[in-house]
From TrEMBL:
<dbReference type="InterPro" id="IPR002293">
    <property type="entry name" value="AA/rel_permease1"/>
</dbReference>
<feature type="transmembrane region" description="Helical">
    <location>
        <begin position="171"/>
        <end position="189"/>
    </location>
</feature>
<keyword id="KW-0472">Membrane</keyword>
<feature type="transmembrane region" description="Helical">
    <location>
        <begin position="350"/>
        <end position="371"/>
    </location>
</feature>
<keyword id="KW-0813">Transport</keyword>
<feature type="transmembrane region" description="Helical">
    <location>
        <begin position="302"/>
        <end position="329"/>
    </location>
</feature>
<dbReference type="GO" id="GO:0022857">
    <property type="term" value="F:transmembrane transporter activity"/>
</dbReference>
<feature type="transmembrane region" description="Helical">
    <location>
        <begin position="412"/>
        <end position="438"/>
    </location>
</feature>
<feature type="transmembrane region" description="Helical">
    <location>
        <begin position="209"/>
        <end position="227"/>
    </location>
</feature>
<dbReference type="Pfam" id="PF13520">
    <property type="entry name" value="AA_permease_2"/>
</dbReference>
<keyword id="KW-1133">Transmembrane helix</keyword>
<keyword id="KW-0812">Transmembrane</keyword>
<feature type="transmembrane region" description="Helical">
    <location>
        <begin position="103"/>
        <end position="126"/>
    </location>
</feature>
<feature type="transmembrane region" description="Helical">
    <location>
        <begin position="32"/>
        <end position="55"/>
    </location>
</feature>
<feature type="transmembrane region" description="Helical">
    <location>
        <begin position="450"/>
        <end position="469"/>
    </location>
</feature>
<dbReference type="GO" id="GO:0016020">
    <property type="term" value="C:membrane"/>
</dbReference>
<feature type="transmembrane region" description="Helical">
    <location>
        <begin position="138"/>
        <end position="159"/>
    </location>
</feature>
Amino acid sequence: MEQHQRLDDNEHLAVLGYTGSFDRSMSLWSNFALGFTYLSPLVGVYSLFAVALATGGPPSIFWLLIVGGGQLLVALVFGEVVSQFPIHGGIYPWTRRLWGRRYAWMAAWIYIWAMIVTITAVAQFGSGFLGSIFGVEVSRGSTLLLTLVLLFVALALNFTGTRTLATAARIGLVAELTGVIALGLYLLIFDRKHPFSTFFDSMGVEGNGSYAAAFMGAALAGLFLFYGFEACGDVAEEVNNPARRIPLAMVMTILVGGVSALLSFGGYVLAAPDLQKIVAGQDPDPIPAILESALGPIGAKVFLVVAIMAFMSCVLSLQAAASRLVFSFARDGMLPGHAWLAKVSPKSKVPTHALIVACLIPVLISVLIFFGSEQLLTQVTSFAVLGIYVAFQSVVLAALRQRLRGWKPAGPFSLGSFGIVVNVAALAYGLFALYLLAKPTSTGDFFTDWTVLIGFAVVAGVGLIYLFAARPDGKSHAPSGDALEVAEKLRSASH
């Protein structure tokens, strides 16, 4: 791929039909930090640690390896796509250039809703830690109140501008690394109360049934953790040498995030003073107790502050990302109320109206969770992850379709002849993940069991009705379905 060294960033953009209008100030490490704080192993492990252990017991840690491996395949496919198309917006422009406008519209519509629901889930899970700092007893009322505090504080910070967001991302990265790797190693080395063989002991979670079913039920622990790496590509036009650096940042996000999550999850399991109680589902918020046992009351409080910083950074970043996606969609006339949603504050240079939407819809969902069943948060989280995975697989499927038509990715990051094999494997993994996420539960209550699929059907159904009634795809004149032609142009331009 030597010839690609001759194309600089603006020449590459010109072939794609754009002119460089952003400051390329983001380095490889900044781009990695962005993906890492989105992926947020600290938030992922904290959020679903109790649920994973109560569902699948200590062996649920193996989902981190299974999902990490599968998502690495997806990241490699994304790497080839972004290397050819290093442009702002990620999944929306990638699917547009690989397939077409309608296909891209549906992928982005589902992705927007999944991100908004993810904001809700992260804020809900973070409320428990906020409560622990202030000694507030966990109840449905206190969870709702503290969730709203997290959402509105993030909104206020986002209103002040991009500089605040960048600072929060850096603080979040430091908090993540301290809170995940340092603490995980400390617990494993100095405070281990159980043998490593514990990870092969189901501790009776299967009851009288098969353990395989219990293990499959714990898949969400891994599936909720390994996304966020796609965010590295959302800011492609602000990265120096993005065609080479963004694929690397994506792979680094998965690898560093995976190792961090394994250390963290493993440390908590082996340092838990009463592991049986957590596995029995009698302790819905066990991590503060594990920390107090290992670090003492003052150490545990300090660590909870670090955790809240990571949660706040994650909510802030997700809110900002969702608002940018809503804004870019609205700017193309693609959404109802697009003129209002596309407004940018002249003072802070952020899309304030889109930010309000990215805050208020999670507020409404939080109120629904407050009035709903105990399982609703897990179902809401499952819906969010299902939507994200559908959006991811829309890129993987579109890339495979183009390969079968003869597309050879023309960016400097290339898997060569292994590209098709990795692409097929990524799609197979994705279909397996979608099955696990969409599979109805078996509580006996129809609405509870089918919430995830009902929610997905409503979002997709409303999207399809709007797409065919309002024809938003006809309002965009951006290039689409041209992956083969662009690859040829890039190769010609580099000679």
